[in-house]
């Protein structure tokens, strides 16, 4: 299980690094937009992301 967790963490880091590597200016603009969101909007985005990730894991397994 720990090996799978490590693989998942590494894949997350690779995916998170793609946008700042390919387009740093656009990445900065996205970060500025995220900073302007309210706590409620951020929580909703986080919840949506978690639910989508859980659903995709369920479908893949």
Automatic annotation (TrEMBL):
Keyword annotations for this protein, in alphabetical order, are: Membrane, Transmembrane, Transmembrane helix
The record's section on InterPro entries has: DUF2065
TM stretches of this protein: 6-22, 42-60
Top-rank taxon of the source lineage equals: Bacteria
Pfam families on file: DUF2065
- In Swiss-Prot or TrEMBL terms, this protein is called DUF2065 domain-containing protein
Q: What is the lineage of its organism?
A: Bacteria, Pseudomonadati, Pseudomonadota, Gammaproteobacteria, Pseudomonadales
- Note whether Transmembrane helix occurs among the keywords: yes
């Amino acid at each position: 299980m720990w090996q799978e967790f490590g693989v998942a963490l590494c894949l997350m880091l690779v995916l998170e690094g793609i946008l700042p590597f390919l387009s740093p200016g656009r990445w900065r603009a996205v970060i500025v937009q995220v900073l302007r969101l309210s706590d409620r909007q951020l929580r909703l985005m986080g919840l949506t992301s978690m639910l989508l990730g859980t659903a995709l894991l369920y479908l893949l397994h």
